[in-house]
Amino acid sequence: TDVKDPAAQQIVMFKERNPSPVGIITTSSGAPVERTEALNTLNSRLLNNEYFMETLTHLNRERIPERLVHAKAGGAFGYFEVTHDITNICKAKLFSKVGKRTPVAARFSPVIVERGGSDTSRDARGFSVRFYTEDGNFDIVGFNTPMYAYKDPRLFPTFVRAQKKNPATNLFDRNTFWDYLTLQPESLHMFLLVFGDRGIPDGYRHMPGFGIHSYQVENKHGDIHFVRFHFRPDAGIKTLRAKEALKIGAEDPDYNTRDLYRAIGNGNFPSWTVSIQILTLDDVKNADFDVFDVTNVIPLNEFPLHPVGKFVLNKNPVNYFAEVEQLAFSPANLVPGILGGPDKVFEARRLAYRDAQYYRLGANFNRIPINCPFRTNTFVYNRDGRPPVGDNEKDIPNYFPNTFNGPIPYIDKKRSNLIEIVEYEPNNFKQATDLYVNEMTSDERSRLVENILYNLAPATAVLQERAVKLFSLIHPDLGYQIEQGLRRNATISDVNNNYNDWH
Ligand code: HEM
Predict the structure, then answer these.
(1) Which of 266, 346, 384, 397 is 20 to 30 A (C-alpha) from 145?
(2) For ligand 1, what atom is nearest to the CA of residue 294?
(3) pLDDT grade for 1, boundaries at 50, 70 and 90
(4) Mutate to test the pocket of ligand 1, among 64, 72, 141, 260 (most ligand atoms within 8 A of CB)
């Protein structure tokens, strides 16, 4: 037999595995559907045709709200295997022993485009992973950049609205985008990467991932440390050049989703080396920058990576909606030993994801099979609500405390509490300068300028001027090149009309 592309030939391969029809059609209530009901609608009584009525009405109910952000994605499943012992700093069961495997889910997503948008848009990418541990689900809902855009959670709605479509025109709008970016210069650090090569990954399996927040972790004695999670793709980081990406996106908007499905379908399993940067409380106090500021990176030369394990994706979803669209990741999905970040963005996220998932999936989203913490027995006091409810906790008492042997809390006398921190105004020009000067090659710096120009040229003059000032603060050379580039552009007539395809 010839070699098939599993992404393009899924349905053909299905038939190869199922040489005859898999069964008799039924209505959703299980009645077998007769041949005439399924095939003859002309000159027959449609109202009596339960199969037809059900199909027609079900179709109208097949869309649920897409995610507010990160609507489009590829997802897959696999395992995490511990390669290095970190029990001295973290007691979480998933790290308990070298060689231990924990089932995982992953979802990779551009931030801004809608579900029908292009995988090759210039943007940061979401890097969401879930560990189905024996103590419940642990999610890292991260990015492909080691820093985030802002440290004040109040900016989330502004950040989203300025980048999503303009409500008047229903178009992506360079003015709203540059207005946001120049009013919130703390975001420039991350956007240097987005405008650089990192902004268009060539395949999700060539993309790094970062938890970004500094997570408080504790060992079995209750001693605390702070860690940042890093996922390095074993196949190396690959990115697309801007022109190449526009061409690919026009031909195949699902380029990255396809690449992931195809690779896994062909047995070419993507993997990442998972590492952590480790800080003590003293390190935190002595650092000359805010360790908990998500717009900062923690320098690797001061706090090197400690390998922890391998993250391997070896299974495609069998059904995308069931297993990927319904995934409900949350930074608040934590397990004993991992307390999350003490910063305000983390605190805001504890609410935002739950609320988003109530809205798009309903009150019982954690009862949806792909979200069930299936490695543990759950006992909750909540009942009822929009399905699915599973067994709805059967006949167990539904109020707490009670005298009748309903579930009781566990006791952990050595447990630490999440530390309290004081946060200050961000100042990331130092790290942005460092990124520009020390991390980017001169080739990447010139592509950065080109990409910024491509996107800044359609913005209105006052925003361009503000942007030039800010880029000059990162580095005079960067500001100068952008200013010169804008001047050159301005001499080319009607340049502004052709620049709307950034996303
Ligand atoms: C104030 C800060 C933030 C708020 C309020 C917020 C809110 C949200 C919301 C409402 C969603 C949609 C969730 C859903 O419908 O399931 C989402 C998705 C997502 N966010 Fe955030 N977010 C914030 C910051 C961040 C940060 C700092 C990161 C990265 C470290 C991040 C990464 C993601 C990712 C990867 C997804 C997609 C999750 C998935 O794959 O389903 N967000 N966010």
Answers:
(1) 266
(2) 27
(3) low
(4) 141
